[in-house]
Amino acid sequence: MSERVILAYSGGLDTSVAISWIGKETGKEVVAVAIDLGQGGEDMEVVRQRAIDCGAVEAVVVDARDEFADEYCLPTIQNNALYMDRYPLVSAISRPLIAKHLVEAARDHGGTVVAHGCTGKGNDQVRFEVGFGSLAPELEVLAPVRDYAWTREKAIAFAEENGIPINVTKKSPFSIDQNVWGRAVETGFLEDLWNAPTKDVYDYTEDPTLNWSTPDELIISFDKGRPVAIDGNPVSVLQAIEELNRRAGAQGVGRLDVVEDRLVGIKSREVYEAPGAMVLITAHSELEHVTLERELGRYKRHTDQKWAELVYDGLWFSPLKSSLDTFTGSTQEHVSGDIRLVLHGGTVVVNGRRSAESLYDFNLATYDAGDTFDQSYAKGFVQLHGLSSKIAAKRDLDR
Q1: Mean pLDDT in runs of 10 for the chain (399 residues)?
Q2: Residue 210, annotated ligand binder?
Q3: CA distances from 394 to 123, 239, 379 (A)
Q4: How far apart are alpha carbons 69 and 75 in whole angstroms?
Q5: So what's the pLDDT on residue 172?
Q6: Is 124 annotated in the active site?
Q7: What's the pLDDT at 358?
Q8: Is 16 annotated in some ligand binding site?
Q9: Residue 310: exposed, middle, or buried by beta-carbon count in 10 A (0-12, 13-18, 19+)?
Q10: CATH says 176-354 is which class?
């Protein structure tokens, strides 16, 4: 059997052309691996057949939707992960899962090389290759778009010259990546930071004014940090994301226009749609405010940020991220209860919280009759709490 290259296959122009190009340039057979992450669009059997038609000796489709939701989206929820406090890691959390399945395919199909279609400007090349290096350092890596300076024009010309059966006439002005967790859009006129997104940028969300007269109120229930029901109806994590994509998307929730710091050192402008992700992170974060002890909550907000940065930077399999996962898991023991939210006009507003694990004590918090907080303790507490600052201030004033 000839040496084999295991290619991360999306079904688009670049990876379809890559099948034929890799065969011609390296003499190796190509096994195409397509991963269903709930991205919608074409039927995955159509994608699989296209890979065969383009010259792959084998084409594998992996239904990873529940795995993606349970093992990648759920930790993102539990870490309230927003890179730069805004981006819910739509693409970043999918790459280590794809890398994992490419490594498995290499072992199952005799692959010695893994290949991807990333450019040299983006973060995904790092996420894939660091993942490969962590899971199977013996595999070689091939990145034809990056290493051979492919352009769309070169890819189209190669397809036409070699009779590759793919439609190369339709040109989208955008580069799009999507899965059930969200949708990422870049390039085209969005590269001018002054240009506002137009309606054709969006697909997962409606215009926020469309359902202005019909706001949507719902209750999300969590058990140990895991979403388990919506409006009392049991759901899996995947079902929760899908349902909230539909309902929040109808209200225009989850539209994000972000200038972000890429790992390679440049800034880029990205437009994201992540309706379900933003609702779930908002609800989960709010429930933690109710159920986590003060110092634990404060510290976890720091680790949440670090976790998001590690994942964005392609370090899903790193020792620190693994240790943070253990810490986060321990913090979720009491994160159970219900959060009520209103989705309206592109916003998510929490208006109700309840939990058997709540640390909120009405009798301590109330200013009305029944108040059990002994205010006589406060005077001495305040004096001691500010004592060091008072001493320092006195020294500075006496100079």
Answers
A1: 87 85 89 94 88 92 97 98 96 97 96 91 93 96 84 77 66 82 92 94 95 97 98 98 98 97 93 98 98 98 98 97 98 98 98 97 85 87 93 90
A2: no
A3: 52, 60, 20
A4: 9
A5: 65
A6: yes
A7: 97
A8: yes
A9: buried
A10: alpha beta
Say which of 4, 91, 124, 177 is annotated catalytic. Answer: 124
Which of 50, 65, 95, 255 does the annotation list as catalytic? 95
pTM for the full model? 0.94
Residue 121 contacts residue 266 (beta carbons within 8 Å): yes
Q: Which amino acid is at 160?
A: E
Considering only the top CATH level, what class is 4-172?
Answer: alpha beta
Q: Which two tokens stand for residue 221?
A: 């229930």
Superfamily grouping for domain 362-398: Single helix bin (1.20.5.470)
Q: Is 318 annotated as a binding residue?
A: no
pLDDT at 138: 96
* Alpha-carbon distances, residue 285 vs 2, 65, 94, 373 (angstroms): 52, 24, 22, 27
pLDDT at 368: 85
Q: Which of 36, 70, 146, 175 is catalytic?
A: 175
Sign, Cα dihedral of 311, 332, 279, 359: negative
Task: Clarify whether 226 is annotated catalytic.
Answer: no
For the chain, what are the domain ranges? 4-172, 176-354, 362-398
Q: What is the pLDDT of residue 148?
A: 79
- Cα(107)–Cα(33) distance, rounded to whole angstroms? 13
Distance separating alpha carbons of residues 94 and 67, to the nearest angstrom: 11
CA–CA separation, 285 and 229 (whole Å)? 17
